[in-house]
Amino acid sequence: MIYTVAGVYLAALGCSRWGDPRFDFRSALQDTTNYAALPLGLAFGVLKGKTGLNQFLRRCYPPLLIVFAANMVLIAAGYLGNTGDRGRQLDLSMYSSEFFICISFPCVWSRSSGVTQRIIALSGIGCAVVFAFTSATRSIFLTLIGSLVFTAIVEIKRDRRRRFIWIGAGILLLAGAIAGPGLGGFQETLLGERLY
What we know:
By secondary structure, the chain is mostly helical. It has helices at 2-16, 25-77, 94-110, 115-135, 138-158, 163-179, 181-188, 190-195. The protein is globular, with a radius of gyration of 19 Å. The mean pLDDT is 80.
């Protein structure tokens, strides 16, 4: 209830700035739909149940990944308009696809049974990493990190024997970022600069 009231308040606040020259209807609509995703997702989960929700995510993930990857390639090649500034390559419509990929990755990964399904899941998260850096978008990067953390938690809970592999991989990545050239290199990227 509090979340819904806050969402309605924020939407009304956005509409009250309609005459402002900096007001962008497309961004306001995107922010409203992103904010509405939580209650709509919860309602969808209740209606479909756990199995139905898993099936829905696994069906939507591959086609969305193909369209998302194609958009990244077309923007990089200059065939689609780039709305980014200072060297950022992005289109605002790609954020929703990216968030869907990151948010559904733990479920898609944990339900993948074959090699092909694992490759599709990893391709999605790989595109997420590339987009986080080429768009230099902090929210995408943080959502990506959260997705990987939740995936590790799911995998550790599912198979406790492999928990040391996941924990070890996390420690190695963190140590490499802090001690190795990763941190210096990361800070020199536009994403690292924006996060800093």
